[in-house]
Amino acid sequence: MTTTEVVRSPGRAAAGSSVAGRAVAGSSVAGSSAATRASVDGRLAAASWEALFRAQVALMRRFSADDIWHPVSMREYDVLFTLTSAPAGLRLNELNREVLVTQPSLSRMVERLESKGLVTRCAAEGDRRGTLIRLTDEGAALQKEIGRRHVRSIRKYLEPALDEQQLTMLLDLCTTLRTAQDSIPD
């Protein structure tokens, strides 16, 4: 794409009218002044964020409505899923960086999961005060069971919307965006 396209959201007018449209990723801003590029780039960044956020909200609503999570909540499943990538366990603050839950809520959630026998707490090797949270065998089995159902749900909502090339591009873009955050100053 070599020209700037305008995307209109419902209730929004096209560029040049009283409510500005939004530039689409991949559009060219060649030949524009630095001030115009900064303005377009800012609008493009905001529009990109809005599109990503709204897509995530739409999908999360569908996933949360799916009857696949029992006997845990979708957020508890997220904790189990995150722990599958850390067989040695994670400290609470490490786990907290990976899930969308505040630390006090996560502490209570870990207590609930522990009372259900799905996770265990153990001392961190070489650190008497440190505690690691690990999946139990029962927690790992439940994560796999729910995970299979969740993958079917993911496929149901993503595959009709995106082809393989688009899914690969989405994965690459989201991975790049997420990993870049560590090197971007606050």
Structure description:
GO terms for molecular function: DNA binding; DNA-binding transcription factor activity. This is MarR family winged helix-turn-helix transcriptional regulator. Keywords: DNA-binding, Transcription, Transcription regulation. This protein is mostly helical and 186 residues long. The chain has 2 domains: 1-65, no CATH class; 74-148, Arc Repressor Mutant, subunit A (Orthogonal Bundle). Helices cover 55% and strands 10% of the residues. The chain has a two-stranded antiparallel ribbon. The protein has a two-stranded antiparallel ribbon with strand order 3-4.
List the helices and strands and how they pair.
Elements (H helix, E strand, L loop, with lengths): L5 E2 L14 E2 L10 H32 L8 H11 L7 H7 L4 H13 L3 E6 L2 E9 L1 H22 L5 H17 L6
Antiparallel strand pairs: 1-2, 3-4
Helix pairs in contact: 2-5
